[in-house]
Amino acid sequence: MARYGKEHKDITRRRIIDAASKRFKQDGFDGSGVATLMSDAGLTNGAFYAHFESKDDLVATVVHEELSRQAASFSDLKLGRDGLQDFVREYLSTKHRDHPDVGCPSAALLDEIGRSSAAAKQAYTVGAKAILKEIASRLSPHDPDAAQGTALNLFTMMIGTMQLARALSDRRLSKTVLENGAQSALAMIAADQRT
């Protein structure tokens, strides 16, 4: 039997993480069994345990990867508040609402992370702090610590708005929730600038 090199193992692990990320955000942690996740990755069930100790290990890894990716995505935005305003508009859009499988892990999984293992909660905490740091540094580049409260309020409002918009069956009302949330978030950014 041929052994695969480290590069192949890394690629396979990445396939599992990427497939699990989409499936978890679509169906939740409990709605995604190992067999389904491995099928999504185009792999056999037996390959799972060569990469992860358990499903909880995979959940914590996915949470870490997703939030790290989201924090890193801030570098693609315009500098300062302009980039933050673009982030708000993209986040609170119908496109993001309609595609949770490729969107923000917080909006898709926050309630599940709260019921998950300590490792998943720790991974989320580290990632959330990194995102809050990115938001605060755009609100107040010279003193990000002074903007931590506003950053926290902004991020939590955006997550809650997206969760509510996704929960509503009335699409017009859902769109109104998103539009009002975006207006409130942009007003929060503008108000913080004046203080």
From TrEMBL:
It holds the Pfam family TetR_N. Residues 10-70 form the HTH tetR-type domain. Coiled coil: none annotated. SUPFAM superfamilies: Homeodomain-like (SSF46689), Tetracyclin repressor-like, C-terminal domain (SSF48498). Keywords: DNA-binding, Transcription, Transcription regulation. It comes from the Bacteria. Residues 33-52 bind DNA. One of its GO terms (molecular function) is DNA binding. InterPro entries: Homeodomain-like_sf, HTH_TetR, Tet_transcr_reg_TetR-rel_C_sf. This is TetR/AcrR family transcriptional regulator. It comes from Aeromicrobium ginsengisoli. The lineage of its organism: Bacteria, Bacillati, Actinomycetota, Actinomycetes, Propionibacteriales.
